[in-house]
Design a protein that fits this description.
single chain, 8 strands, alpha/beta, 2 domains, Rossmann fold, DHS-like_NAD/FAD-binding_dom, about 280 residues
Length: about 280
Amino acid sequence: MTTLTLSEAAPLLKKEFREGRLIPFLGAGFSKPLKLPDGSQLIASLAKTLGFEPELFDMHGRFEQLAEFFELSGPTRFKELVYTMTRGFDSAEAEALRKTSPMHLALAALPWRTIYTTNYDRHVEGAFEDAGKQVSVLASFADFQGPRVRDVCEVVKFHGTLTQPETIVLTESSYFRRMALEAPPDQRLRADLLSNSFLFIGYSFSDTNIRYIWYRMNQLREQSQMGVKHSQARRCFFATHGAGLVQPDILEQWNIDVIQLDPTDKSASVAKLLESIA
């Protein structure tokens, strides 16, 4: 079991960052300070559109299953869902909060080469724009095929982006299709796995989808590092505010160190983690 304090993790992260080998992988929790709609609010919106009571609708499945049911209920339903999410996620209020979010300010202050995110909103790239920096967003096949801009951070939207609805991984079927990890973002991940360490921020231990990605990442890493001992392989890091006793052991088998952050002020502790890298 490997659980690190911030002071223990900082030198390791600094070393990876100095070598240009540290890549953030950001989840929904990273956008928490922006007060974006959560899953229950989105489910309630879908339920009302379909004539369900939100509490009853929520009992019929996980969010991705309910999103699939919503999509199947009419030919324009998915467009309606994307519109609803865009209004909630990329609102003027959220943008204003982003401009003062310690986490987003700390993220954009660093000269990253690559950032991955499973978030559909545009607040990761927006944080760099707020700082006067250019970014390149990669979500579709066309994005990966397009010209590359020198010295610009590439934001890989691993589950798609609201600005390109066809790239969004949201329904149960779309998650199942991605399990083979063969889409353009997956191919990029395979390449980055060979020589980089990832820092996961904003994820829950209960997030099945990201856990599957961790499992598959470790499989791909092992396939690529034939003959390399587990202890010699490049490690990844998972920042959390409550590690417990069980999860660190499970993540250790996937070559992931857990970083225990201060839970009393979650935004400030994540910002402090990012600042410690510099």
